[in-house]
C-alpha cells in the first residue's frame, strides 16, 4: 500500500493547484516523554507541574563535576516501546552530546543518541477511512528534555524553569511515508495509543508529554521528493492537521510561482492558523555531535530484552482482530472499543457470557455516548460493567424492551441500583400478556377508522399503529406481539 505506483493509481490524496496536482510528503519526529518517576540521568522527580525549579538536582542544573547516571527504568521503557513498534532493538547504543547554546540548557549540550540509537527500524499500521497505511519507523532514541524559558512574568526579565530539564524523552522518527494530514493525524493517534497500552508515555499533549516536529514537502505525483520544511513542537492533533494543510498550500503557491523552497524550521501559530519561519535549517555538523565521555555505551543483554518482550500486553492491532473474531464485531466497532485499554477491558466484562454485538451496541451507543456528553470516562462511569451487563440480560430475556432499557439505564446512571430490581419494583416489565395487548390494539383500531382504511393500501402505516399501542401501554408492550396482533386484526 506504500508503493508509490499504487498511490498514483489511487489519486486520493492529491491537492489541486493552479497548474495541476500536487502530493504532500510527510515525515514526523515525535517526542514522547517517558512515563517514569525520575529523570533520565538524575534522581530528581519527573512529575509534571510543581513550583518552578522544584524538581531540579545538581545534575539537571549542570553543576561542575556532577556526573549523569543512566536510569535503567527509562531504558526499559524505550525498549518496551521499540518492541511495541515491532522494531529492531540495538543491543549496543551510544549517548552523544548535541551541542548548542540556549538559556534553558545549562549543560550547553543535550545528551541524545545520534548514529547508534537504542531502537532501529520498525513500523506502525494505521487505518485511514478504512484504508490501511503502513508507516515505517526509522529509529527511536533516548534523549534529555531541556528546561523552559519564561518571558511573560516580568516586563524586562526572563526566567528559567529547569523542572523539565533532564526528563527522559523518546524521539520516534518516522520515514517520509505519509501523504496527507489525515494520515499524519492517524499515525500520531496510533503511536499515542500504542504507548498508552504499553504504559511507556501518558500521551498527554496538553502537558507536552507528546509533541511532534512535522516535516512537510510537496511534489508532483511520481516525482522525486521536494525540499522539506520542519514545523516544530506541534502539541495537538488538530493543530497538526491545520499546520500541514497551511504549509502544503504555502509551498505549492511558491513552486507554482516559479520559486523554490528554502529548507527551514518553522513554527505554527494556532491563532492565525499559519506557519512562520523561525530559523534556517541547521545541519547535523552544526551540533558537533560526539560520544558523551561521562557515559558508557549502553549494552543490553538478551535476558533484559527477553523479559520485557515477555511482559508486553496485547496491543491495539491484536485486540481489534480478536474482538472481530471472538465477538463478531465490525472493524469500526472494534476500533472504537479498543481506543483505550480501559474501554476494551470494560467492554469485555460486559460481553463475557453474552451476545458480543448487543454488548458492543450498549457500550458504544449508550454508555460512551453518555460519558462523552458528560465529560466522563470508563474510569469514572456511574454505570458499572456489571450493571450494564444486567441490562443487556434483561433485554435478551425479553423482560424489557430496548426502549424501556434506555429508561432503566437512565435510572441506574442517576440513582444507581440493580437493573433487575429497578424493573421489578417500578413495574417496568414488558407486557407479553396477549390479553392486555389485545385490549390496547382493539381500542386503537376502534378509535381510528380512517387510518384502518388507509393502511390496507399503505402497509408501511402499520408502524403508526404499533407506535400508538406502545404509547398507551407506556412502552411496556412487547413490540413483536403488538405488530403480530395488529397484522392479524387489520388483515395485512
Ligand atoms: P533531521 O534530523 O535533520 O531533521 P532526518 O533525515 O532525520 O533529518 O529526517 C527527519 C524527518 O524528516 C524524518 O521523519 C523523515 O521522514 C522526514 N523527511 C525526510 N525527507 C523528507 C521530505 N522530503 N519530505 C518530508 N519529510 C521528509
Ligand atoms: Mg529534525
Fraction in beta strands = 15-25%
State Rg.
Answer: 30 Å
Globally, the shape reads elongated
Quote the distance from N terminus to C terminus: 53 Å
Give the strand tally: 16
Q: Structural class of the helices, strands and pairings?
A: alpha+beta
The number of helical runs is: 16
- Write down the overall mean pLDDT: 93
Q: Uncertain spans, ≥5 residues at pLDDT below 50? A: 1-5
Biggest sheet architecture: 9 strands, mixed
Helix content: 25-40%
Bound molecules: adenosine-5'-diphosphate, magnesium ion
Structure description:
With 492 residues, this protein is α+β, with helices and mostly antiparallel strands. The protein contains 16 helices and 16 strands. It has helices spanning 4-10, 72-84, 181-198, 237-256, 302-310, 316-327, 331-338, 341-351, 356-373, 385-396, 402-415, 419-425, 434-447, 449-457, 462-472, 479-490; strands at 15-17, 20-33, 92-93, 96-99, 109-112, 122-128, 131-144, 148-150, 159-161, 168-174, 210-219, 229-234, 264-269, 274-280, 290-291, 298-299. The strands form four sheets. Strands 1, 2, 6, 7, 10, 11, 12, 13 and 14 form a nine-stranded mixed sheet that branches. A hairpin with an 8-residue loop joins strand 8 (148-150) and strand 9. Helix 2 (72-84) packs across helix 5 (302-310). The radius of gyration is 30 Å and the shape is elongated. The two termini are 53 Å apart. The site of magnesium ion has 3 residues, from loops.
Amino acid at each position: 500500500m506504500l508503493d508509490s505506483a499504487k498511490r498514483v493509481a489511487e489519486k486520493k490524496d492529491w491537492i489541486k493547484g493552479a497548474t495541476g496536482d500536487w502530493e504532500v510528503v510527510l515525515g514526523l519526529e515525535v517526542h514522547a516523554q517517558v512515563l517514569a518517576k525520575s529523570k533520565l540521568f538524575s534522581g530528581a522527580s519527573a512529575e509534571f507541574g510543581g513550583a518552578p525549579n522544584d524538581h531540579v538536582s545538581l545534575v539537571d542544573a549542570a553543576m561542575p563535576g556532577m556526573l549523569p547516571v543512566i536510569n535503567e527504568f527509562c531504558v526499559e521503557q524505550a525498549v518496551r516501546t521499540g518492541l511495541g513498534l515491532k522494531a529492531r532493538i540495538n543491543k549496543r547504543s551510544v549517548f552523544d552530546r548535541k551541542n548548542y547554546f540556549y538559556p534553558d540548557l545549562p549543560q550547553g549540550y543535550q545528551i541524545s543518541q545520534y548514529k547508534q540509537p537504542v531502537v532501529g527500524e520498525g513500523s506502525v499500521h494505521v487505518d485511514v477511512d478504512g484504508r490501511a497505511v503502513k508507516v515505517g519507523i526509522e529509529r527511536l532514541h533516548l534523549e534529555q528534555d531541556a528546561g523552559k524559558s519564561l518571558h511573560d512574568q516580568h516586563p524586562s526579565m526572563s526566567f528559567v524553569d529547569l523542572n523539565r530539564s533532564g526528563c527522559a524523552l523518546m524521539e520516534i522518527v518516522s520515514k517520509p511515508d505519509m501523504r496527507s494530514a489525515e494520515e499524519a493525524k492517524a499515525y500520531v493517534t496510533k503511536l499515542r495509543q500504542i504507548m498508552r497500552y504499553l504504559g511507556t508515555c501518558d500521551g498527554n499533549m496538553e502537558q507536552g508529554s507528546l509533541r511532534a516536529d512535522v516535516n512537510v514537502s510537496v511534489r508532483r505525483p511520481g516525482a522525486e521528493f521536494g525540499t522539506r520544511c520542519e514545523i516544530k513542537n506541534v502539541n495537538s492533533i488538530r493543530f497538526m492537521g491545520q499546520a500541514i494543510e497551511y504549509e502544503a498550500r504555502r509551498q505549492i503557491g511558491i513552486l507554482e510561482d516559479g520559486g523554490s523552497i528554502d529548507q527551514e524550521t518553522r513554527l505554527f501559530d494556532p491563532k492565525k492558523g499559519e506557519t512562520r519561519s523561525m530559523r534556517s535549517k541547521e545541519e547535523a555538523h552544526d551540533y558537533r555531535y560526539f560520544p558523551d565521555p561521562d557515559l558508557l555505551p549502553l549494552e543490553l543483554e538478551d535476558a533484559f530484552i527477553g523479559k520485557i518482550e515477555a511482559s508486553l500486553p496485547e496491543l491495539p492491532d491484536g485486540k481489534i482482530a480478536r474482538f472481530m473474531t471472538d465477538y463478531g464485531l465490525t472493524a469500526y466497532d472494534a476500533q472504537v472499543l479498543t481506543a483505550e485499554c480501559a474501554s476494551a477491558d470494560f467492554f469485555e466484562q460486559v460481553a463475557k457470557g453474552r451476545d458480543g454485538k448487543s454488548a458492543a451496541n450498549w457500550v458504544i451507543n449508550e454508555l460512551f455516548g453518555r460519558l462523552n456528553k458528560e465529560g466522563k470516562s470508563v474510569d469514572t462511569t456511574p454505570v458499572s460493567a456489571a450493571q450494564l451487563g444486567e441490562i443487556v440480560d434483561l433485554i435478551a430475556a425479553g423482560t424489557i424492551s430496548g426502549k424501556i432499557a434506555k429508561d432503566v439505564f437512565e435510572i441506574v446512571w442517576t440513582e444507581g441500583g440493580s437493573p433487575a430490581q429497578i424493573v421489578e419494583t417500578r413495574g417496568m416489565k414488558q407486557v407479553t400478556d396477549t390479553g392486555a395487548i389485545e385490549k390496547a390494539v382493539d381500542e386503537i383500531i376502534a378509535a381510528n377508522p380512517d387510518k384502518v382504511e388507509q393502511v390496507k393500501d399503505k402497509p408501511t402505516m402499520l408502524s403508526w399503529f404499533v407506535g400508538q399501542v406502545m404509547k398507551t401501554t407506556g412502552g411496556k408492550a412487547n413490540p413483536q406481539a403488538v405488530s403480530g396482533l395488529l397484522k392479524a386484526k387489520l388483515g395485512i
